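Run log, item B.
One chain of 184 residues. Sequence copied directly from the ordering sheet:
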Amino acid sequence: MNPLSIAQTIQDKFPKEVKEIVEFRKQVSVIIQRDRAKEILAFLYFNKDFNFDYLVDLCGVDYMGQKKPRFEVVYNLFSMKHRHFFRVRVEVDEDTQDAPDNLSVDTVTDIWRGADWHERECFDLFGIRFKGHPDLRRILMPEDWEGYPLRKDYPLKSDLGDMEWQEYKDLIEFSEKAKQYEVR
């Protein structure tokens, strides 16, 4: 079964949840609404015609200023049995006062155990929460870190002055010294 027919099957089964089928350079992805994302992903996992038993990757994307909703969670799936690859994209919007739970999607750790660390990384770097995750906490950044470094509105430079991390200062100094060895 080719990826386009998989996308069409999903659209036939979940017509209200599929927002768009995108084909780009022979890769197909389906953009779905977040409300039933877990159900659709479970369908792809448990359906014997697809058998997407391997979650290759799960990541976040920030489209600040480019489109609404601003964020997406991208699931890259692979079937070991059928040897096909498929991408599912779930749109997630920013939290607002009237919708404080907008920036969240249901966890898929009970479908793919390997999603555990992927979801934690996505939470840590984008601030996207995964409802029902067994241990949603920072995985790369220190616990007291403020903000989400992969968001497009995250400041690239700090104004901490002497309070800047010494490790960061050391890295900048090392980088400057290493420039003499660059091949041009």
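Observations after the first pass:
- Residues 166-178 form the longest helix (13 residues).
- The chain is about 25% helix and 25% strand.
Flagged for discussion on Thursday.
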